[in-house]
Amino acid sequence: RPWFPYKDEFHLDKPEKQSSSSKVVIASLAEFVEKQMKERFERVVRSRSYSACFVAEALDNAGNIAAIFRSAEAFGFQSVHVITSLTVKGYKGVRRAHRGTERWLDVEVWNCAKDCIQALRSRGYRIAVTSTGHDTVSICEMDWTIPTAVIFGNEHEGASDYSTSEADILCGIPMFGMVDSLNVSVAAGILMRHAVCDRIARNGIHGDLEPEQQEILMAEFFLRYKRNSADIFSDLAKKR
Question: Care to name a GO molecular-function term for this sequence (predicted)?
Answer without folding.
Answer: RNA methyltransferase activity
